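Z., the sequence and structure:
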Amino acid sequence: MVMDSRHVRYKRVIPKEFRLPFTSEDGSAGWTCFTYTIRFLNFKAGTDPIQQSASEFLLLSPQLLDEEVSSISVHLNLPAFAAVDSKLNYCGVLNVSPEKVETVKKFNIWLFHLAMGKCFALPKVSGEGKKNYYVLPCKPITGDTVPSPEELVDWHVVEIAITSSLLYRRKVPFFGGYATLDCQNTQSNEALDGGGLRMRNGIFQEHDLEDAVVTCANNGLPCFVSGILHDLSGSSFCSQSAGRKQISYSDYYFHECKYKLEYPDQPLLKGYRLVRAGNYVRRTSAVSNGDSVKPWETMELPPEVCILHVGLKGKLCRGGMRLPSILHSLEMSLVAAELRNNIGSPLSCFKVQEALTSGACEGNHSYETLELLGDSVLNFIGGVHMYIDFPSCTSELLHSYRHDLVSNRNLYKCGLACGLPGYIFAELLNTKTWVPPGPALEDLPQKSPDGQVIGLKTLADVVEALIGVTFLHGDLNSAVKTMVWLQVPIPFPEKIPEVIIADIQELMEARNTFKDHDIVTLEKKIGYQFKCKSLLLSAFDYGDEVTFTQSGVPRGSFQFQRLEFLGDSVLDFLIMRHFVQLYSAFNPEQLNDLRQATVNSENFACTAIRHGFHHYLKRMSPILRDEIELYAASVHREGGSPFGIPSRASPKAIGDLMQTLAGSILLDSNFDHDLVWKVLKPLLSPLATPKTVMRHPRRLLEALCHKQDLKLELQTIQLEGAVEARVYINQICVANSKHYEPTVARRLAAFTAFRSLSPKRNGLMYLDSVD
């Protein structure tokens, strides 16, 4: 029994490159590091110029990264509608001395605690962390030539950062609220005569404040300075909400902080509050206003209430705030590369990463489309397996067995057995709980449970997506190889057992009523010459009458329906592949519309009528033959429909004919699915396209009812040999339809209901009501 996974958390796999410790070539306590530059390119300015300036970094790894990942590019959607591409490139080997090792660790603790908004008391190191890699700031790189790692690391900035009082917040012992500020007891003309600005910790020139980092003494908030507002001073009025009394900056600080500005004539500083790093890899369309994160808060600051952190620049903090998103993406790609290597696939790791990423991550790629394709691949392989291994089972049993074999519950078990949950990315990046690289730390509270929740369906979907991606960018053998690694127990036969063909030949020798010239004509219509003519004959031998062999095995319709089961598997698989390859940018809903417009019995029936295949259908009862003739007449009169919605529902026999034909060609070609598509694509053309297919009738009806605030309910009732679908709107049955396929019955009923509603000024009027 599979455990309910709704409350089970799984730890993510740490990339193998970051699981090993640093070592030194000379055996000392120093490190030999493989380094990679993290640079920012192709900037989109957005509405705030401050986003354009950020420090670049050097990543230190104990091992060489995967070759494909080592040049990864990550697109970041920054605040204020800005965007930038971050690029990783190998830089060389850096030897870090034992004395510098502790400095590297301290800097990473400082940087990530600042960027992620964690506590500002320097915690103690308690050993190696979960992610054994580090970052260091780079000196500015000019031109195309990148210096060596030794020349590139800005150790001066590192020393300034780790000795900065910004880390400890010594001036204000609390975060938030307001403090009562003491006077500085300095002369007001001292700053003005010197040409500088009086700060809380001294007098500084304007150039000292360029992109400087300050702490507001009244509330402890760290800010970086983007400019000096020469048109504003302490005597100027603050910006106030509508309806509130205007007040000057001097009065504001006097009332709120009990502090009288001693230098009210000094120009104010334009400051940006330093906030926690955001999720910058989230796609902008996932946010209502199109901005990936909240804009940074700006404020006007009197210099005398600000503590300047000398030498520390805002660009270092802004660069650090980008790192969680970049490094999280890097880890995702490395994990995907590791899984790819475990499977033994030659695929790009970024394609594998797409198959591992849930739509809940709100990135630019997710597995939903690949899962659709993987589902069709599984059904095809499962269909072939069932047809070959269970020759005496009816099509109903084959459908049931295959359903159980490829069910989400069974795929979930397979995913657990091969350890797949640790490779999946199922949750939105949360920079509050993201584990930064570097050493393990003491005395840090655990704010959230470790790992991520992965449900049964998510894990099953990823299994299907991995099968889909290896097939899409490889072939069927690649997909089968992936299934073996995933422990999905569905073998694909190398060739058709001779006994299968022999049984069909024996059966058709006794039942064949075709003349030789009819076979030749039919093969020309199909565009394929069968090696085994009995397979062609069996595709058209409906056998409406029930007959049995001497041993009691059913024949006629039994074989026809088994071929229909096999053909249904291959047609759905081939058509889904066609649409995924042709419309790679489409979302799953759009692809499903195209598939359902093509893979349905009504469309297949129209295709069979159009090519005259119904004239070759054998062993039909007079009643069925009359039904087919009436249906053929309606098709010729009305034409086909992209969703198979003629005035008359097709007889099941004619709807199954294209599927039995697909199954017989698949067997005759020894499972050459590409050949099957080469033969059937011209017959099925014109295939549905975005310009010719209507939206699914049910979704059209749902949208219409939602717009008019109407209550919609769809019911299906199982009848003998058919399903009846009924559409109720505001508890009134406005349409119904009967069909042997439940999906077609619901589609026909929804279409009828949609057409029976007429828009009126005061709502919708029901033109017809069905009892």
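The CA atoms of residues 701 and 754 lie 5 Å apart. The first helix runs from residue 98 to 115.

Let me know what you think.
H.
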